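USER: Fancy drafting a protein?

ASSISTANT:
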Amino acid sequence: MDLSDDDRATLFRAGSDALRFNAPLGDDRARALVDELGRRGVRSVVDLGCGRGGLARLVTVRLDGVAVTGVDADADAVTAARTSAAEAGLGDRVRFEVGDAATWCEPVDAAIAVGVSHAFGGPAAQFARLANLAASGIALVGDGVWETEPDAWCLTNLGEQPTSAGGLAALAEAAGWTVLAADLSTQDEWDAFEGGWVAGVRSVGSPVAEAFAAERERQYREHYRGVLAFCWLVLTRSPSR
């Protein structure tokens, strides 16, 4: 669709605002990933590209006494994250800041980076950068990979992706990380993510929003459902490496 920049920004925000996590991430997986950080004994965590702060708030709730910071370049998203944290009674336990994920430099025990490798210039650069932030050598990363062969539309519109979960893990290992766990979002998680996003767009209530939502549903069904996957990695490395 031929949309103005303002219309596109409004519709994309409506889609993401409708989701707890702006990724194909179900509640059970989210809790399991956060609890894995807890088992590693981390005391401070940064969520790079935190958006509206859903995952950062979950870390705050489930890991008592851990200092949590969420960072995002979108000032409106950070404002929303602060408001949600305050409403949940977490305002004094989690901090949200406007900033560039790729240049954020406050050291922490663990770093989270979900769907933000583009901000670093790609997954390889992201893994190298996370090593400079995570003093205890713990990272949680979620990123896109091809599960099956992409068509021309996918390559044009979704860009380059590692060719499998193994390909993403290999990039992490090349940067000195050890992969503790690797898994892909389920199809149910993907369908819930896409469905929630489209419902958020439709909530705008305009003909443009309805047409945009219908086009997104078509693209998902015809091009990238079951083709684009989302890989979750739990990583560790020696702090001296």
About this structure: The chain has one domain: 9-133+148-236. The longest strand covers residues 134-146.
